[in-house]
Amino acid sequence: MSHSTIQDVYPLTQEQVAFYDENRFIKLKNVLNPDEVRIFGSIISKEVEKLNQQSKPLEERDTYGKAFLQLFNLWRHNETIKELVLSKRLASIAAGLMGCEKVRIYHDQALFKEAGGGITPWHADQYYWPIDTDKTITAWIPLQETPLEMGPLEFSAKSHQLLFGRDLEIGDESEARLKQKLRINNFEHVIEPFELGDVSFHSGWVFHRAGANKTNQTRKVMTVIFMDAEAKLKQPENQNQINDWNTWCPGAKVGEVINSPLNPVVNHINP
Questions:
Q1: Which CATH architecture has domain 14-249?
Q2: How far apart are CA 94 and CA 106, in angstroms?
Q3: What pLDDT digit, counting tens, does each position of 219-239 carry?
């Protein structure tokens, strides 16, 4: 790879950190260079193709199934993807925005919204996570330019303050109930196209959704979820959190730091 940015720290400004702290999401320019996006995009696409087991046609799937193909922990399957997921670049941003000294990986996931794929309903990610801190953040990395008609993320700014809906799993009910509640509370909804190299970061409790993919191309996105390196496992509050514990934090103990082999600390500080 020509000059690689992924092992360089990203220079966050105080304004960017303050914006994230207030709104719990931010879209950043030039996080990756276009060559990197293309190279990682090609490798991630091949891995998704290899691992994808979705055999139902779009029209036979439920709302969740129509939203995207979802494949997890690709960093465990491919060394180049591991380089991206465990990069100093992403970790430095995650730590800087959350105000953590160090972060660790919760898991990664590829989210490929097929041509004609449906909406991703309103939800908060952390409903699924048995993590005892709100210092959690997802890097959302589009692997192509993503215009509005392709279904980029839509954020409800400052909605991490809303306790309603934190017990809703993603689906038709979360879309209907949260749409109404977010409107009543007058949270600003922000949706913007992504250029090549743009990456957004959002916290575990901020509500967000994505529109349908109205283009004839797949909307390819890689995501990496980070948490404070000191985050502890909490007593799970729903079946999804029990599943996540067993799948993404195997062997972790309630009340102790989540320190499984699947959750490495990413060192973004020069030794």
A1: Sandwich (2.60)
A2: 12
A3: 999 999 999 999 999 999 999
